[in-house]
Design goal:
mainly alpha; about 0% strand
Length: about 240
C-alpha cells in the first residue's frame, strides 16, 4: 500500500468513525436532553456518559479527517485546504463544549440532587441552562459547520478529481441548504424549520458517507495531484 492509498484509507476510516460515533450518541443522550428534570431525577448517568464519550470520539475523528486529507488537497489550494482544517477543528471544539455542559449536569446531579439544603428549583434551572448550551452547540457545530466543511472540501475534491465528481457535487448542493437551515433555526431561537432541515440534511449525510466509503474501498482516483505525489516520492 503506497502512501497516497494509505492516506485515503485513513481519511475514509475517520469519516466512517464520525457516523459510528455520532448516531448512537443521539440516542444515548436522550435522557438528559429530553427530561427537563433530569438533574433531580434518578438519572441514567452511565448511558449519558457513554453518549458524551462517543461525542468526544466524533470530535476527534472530525479533526482526523482534515489532518489526514490536508497533505493531499493542499496541492489543489493550500489556502482552501487550511480553511477546511480550521473549520473542522472549530466544529470539534464546539462539540466538546456541548459535551462539557452535559458532563456538568451529571456532576451536579450526583453531588447535589437530594442533598440536604439543596434548592431543587435552582438546580433544575441550572440543569436546563446547561442543556440549552448543548442544544446551541449542536446547532453551531454538527448542524452549521458541516455545511462550511462541504463547501471547502467539496470545492477541493471537485476541482482536483480525486474522487468521482458526483460525490463532492452532493456536498456543494447540500452545503448552502444546510447553512440556510441552520441560519433560519438560529433566528427562530433554535427552533428548526423541520422540512428545510430534513431536506438540507440528506445530501450532506450522503456526501460524507459516500466519501468515507469511497476512500476506504477505492482510494483516490488517478489525477495530476496523485501523479505529482508519486513523482515526488520517486525523486526523494
Amino acid at each position: 500500500m503506497d502512501s497516497t492509498r494509505r492516506t485515503a484509507l485513513v481519511a475514509g476510516v475517520f469519516y466512517l468513525i464520525t457516523f459510528a460515533a455520532s448516531i448512537p450518541a443521539v440516542f444515548l443522550l436522550a435522557p438528559v436532553l429530553d427530561n427537563a428534570n433530569y438533574i433531580v431525577s434518578s438519572g441514567a448517568d452511565t448511558r449519558v456518559l457513554w453518549g458524551c464519550f462517543l461525542d468526544v470520539v466524533n470530535a476527534l475523528a472530525c479533526i482526523g479527517t482534515a489532518v489526514a486529507l490536508f497533505p493531499v488537497v493542499k496541492r489543489q489550494s493550500e489556502a482552501v485546504a487550511l480553511g477546511f482544517v480550521t473549520s473542522r477543528m472549530l466544529e470539534a471544539a464546539i462539540i466538546l463544549i456541548g459535551v462539557v455542559s452535559l458532563l456538568a449536569v451529571v456532576t451536579l446531579r450526583q453531588d447535589l440532587a437530594g442533598a440536604p439544603g439543596t434548592d431543587t428549583a435552582s438546580l433544575v434551572t441550572t440543569g436546563k441552562a446547561l442543556v440549552a448550551v448543548r442544544d446551541w452547540t449542536f446547532l453551531l457545530g454538527p448542524s452549521l459547520m458541516p455545511g462550511i466543511n462541504a463547501l471547502l472540501l467539496g470545492y477541493l475534491l471537485y476541482r482536483s478529481g480525486l474522487v468521482p465528481r458526483v460525490i463532492p457535487a452532493l456536498g456543494l448542493i447540500g452545503a448552502p441548504l444546510l447553512i440556510a437551515s441552520a441560519t433560519a433555526t438560529l433566528f427562530r431561537g433554535n427552533d428548526p424549520v423541520t422540512v428545510l432541515a430534513a431536506i438540507a440534511t440528506v445530501p450532506i449525510f450522503v456526501w460524507e458517507l459516500s466519501l468515507g466509503v469511497w476512500l476506504v474501498v477505492k482510494g483516490f482516483k488517478p489525477s495530476p495531484i496523485t501523479a505529482g505525489m508519486a513523482e515526488q516520492k520517486v525523486a526523494t
